[in-house]
Design goal:
Strand order of the largest sheet: 2-1-5-4-3
Shape: rod-shaped
Number of helices: 10
EC number: 2.7.13.3
Enzyme class: transferase
CATH architecture of the largest domain: 2-Layer Sandwich
Subcellular location: Cell membrane
Helix content: 55-70%
Largest sheet: 5 strands, antiparallel
Radius of gyration: 51 Å
Organism: Clostridium estertheticum subsp. estertheticum
Number of domains: 3
CATH superfamily of the largest domain: PAS domain
GO molecular function, one term: ATP binding
Structural class: alpha+beta
Order of helices and strands: HHEEHEEEHHHEHEEHEEHHEE
């Protein structure tokens, strides 16, 4: 299949349009010029014929037509270059200022029309192109003859031919200039498009560091900006992914190393200290749970990306869920010297997936404890409205920098923190809240703490 380039289509389209415009304009101009010259000659002959007829009627009406014809020709020959004929009512030429047709009988429709009292015009060819204007000669209310003014159109036609040639030449020049201009204009569109296309092809090959130079602030320029932005985002995501792979590899290796080490220790026959055995088993269980949570995060991420996460919506008591989570975290908080403060409300029911929302609050509370210092406090509160519920978890910990805050809910993003974790928790939490048709808003004052707001509709059908 033959592919026509945009450049060819644009050039051809411009040319067809300009050719049509030139042809129509020149056609109208040529017709107008021809009509102008013809009308000028016609009006001149009509005027001369009217004057001659009026002259005869006023001064020569009582004179014999043959004698009067000599007076008419003598008086008007110097006013016109046209041939003057005087024809009687039988169509016989009785006088001719050129002396070439006297005595000849002429049969022409203009003579008949003039004898009937009308001024008539005849255009035809007699050895050459001519125009004839005829007007009746009236004596005492009776038509006695016809005056005919005959002019050659050869010079006019020759002049029109020259004008047509000049107009055609101008038209050709306009078309050629337009063709050149259309090629130049198409290049200003095609060249940037080629640049963008080539850059896109390079990106498809994995060269995401390439950048497109923006030449014009138009649609193609916007496309270049978009492609550059896409390239930057891909590079950022690639960097995050690589950092994540490195981080998760370390996070997975640590519990595995611990489990393997203690398992080998327990396997030794000389290791008989029961207290140490219990401690070792507890460490193995804890590390296994941590490993299990990281694997579950990875599985959740995979499900979200594949769109295979489904919610099991029920009427749930969100207050009771929060209370249960806080009870689970109390031992850890006490061990870390952190106070959990819950601003309890009365029972509040919403439409939601109990296990998924519990996963969200556990993740947020885990981060709050992880980044709070000993002696600090974590505040959990809820604000109930008619159609929505907002759960707030805030701390006075190290906070999040403005740069990290922009990307905190992106997949794989961990920021500059050296704390352990997969970097998936908030990204997964955000996805869960979005599936609930709610919003997860994180705000922070770096060095003074972080606040996370989870806004949920009480009835999902109202959203």
């Amino acid at each position: 299949m033959r592919v026509r380039s945009i450049k060819t289509r644009l050039t051809v389209s411009y040319l067809i349009l300009i050719i049509l415009i030139v042809l129509i304009f020149e056609g109208i101009l040529m017709i107008s010029v021809k009509k102008y010259y013809n009308n000028t000659i016609e009006n001149t002959l009509k005027n001369q014929a009217e004057i001659s007829s009026d002259f005869y009627k006023k001064y020569l009406a009582d004179t014999n037509i043959l004698k009067a014809s000599n007076d008419i020709i003598d008086n008007f020959s110097y006013l016109t270059n046209s041939q003057i004929q005087i024809v009687n009512t039988n169509g016989i030429v009785i006088n001719d200022n050129k002396g070439v047709s006297s005595g000849i009988r002429i049969q022409s429709p203009d003579i008949d029309e003039a004898l009937n009292g009308d001024i008539s015009i005849f255009k035809g060819t007699y050895k050459e192109s001519i125009m004839v204007v005829s007007k009746s000669l009236i004596s005492n209310g009776r038509t006695v003859g016809v005056i005919r003014l005959i002019t050659s159109m050869a010079k006019v036609n020759k002049l029109l031919t020259r004008i047509y040639f000049v107009l055609a030449l101008i038209g050709v020049i306009v078309i050629l200039a337009t063709a050149k201009l259309s090629i130049i204009m198409s290049k200003t569109i095609i060249e940037p498009l080629k640049t963008v296309t080539n850059a896109a092809n390079e990106m498809a090959k994995g060269k995401f560091s390439i950048r497109v130079d923006k030449k014009y602030n138009d649609e193609v320029g916007i496309m270049a900006d978009t492609l550059n932005y896409l390239s930057e985002e891909i590079l950022k995501n690639e960097k995050l992914k690589n950092e994540f792979i490195s981080s998760i590899s370390h996070e997975l290796r640590t519990p595995l190393t611990s489990i393997k080490g203690w398992a080998l220790t327990l396997k030794r026959k000389e290791f008989t200290d029961e207290v140490k055995k219990t401690e070792a088993l507890n460490i193995i269980v804890e590390e296994s749970e941590r490993l299990s949570l990281m694997v579950e995060d990875l599985l959740d991420l995979s499900r979200f990306q594949a769109g295979r996460i489904t919610l099991h919506i029920d009427k749930i008591d969100i207050s009771q869920i929060l209370k249960n989570i806080i009870m689970e975290f109390q031992p850890r908080a006490q061990k870390s010297g952190i106070t959990l403060i819950y601003n309890a409300e009365e029972t509040v029911f919403i439409d939601g997936d109990k296990n998924r929302l519990k996963q969200v609050f556990i993740n947020i509370l885990d981060n709050a404890l992880k980044f709070s210092s000993r002696g600090g406090a974590v505040y959990i509160g809820q604000v109930e409205k008619k159609e929505s519920l907002t759960i707030t978890i805030s701390d006075k910990g190290i906070g999040i920098s403005e740069e990290d805050l922009k990307s905190i809910t992106k997949k794989f993003y961990k920021g500059n923190s050296k704390k352990s974790g997969s970097g998936l928790g908030l990204a997964i939490s955000n996805e869960i809240i979005n599936l609930h048709k709610g919003d997860l808003v994180v705000s922070s004052d770096y060095g003074n703490g972080t606040k996370v707001e989870v806004k949920l509709p009480r009835n999902r059908q109202n959203r």
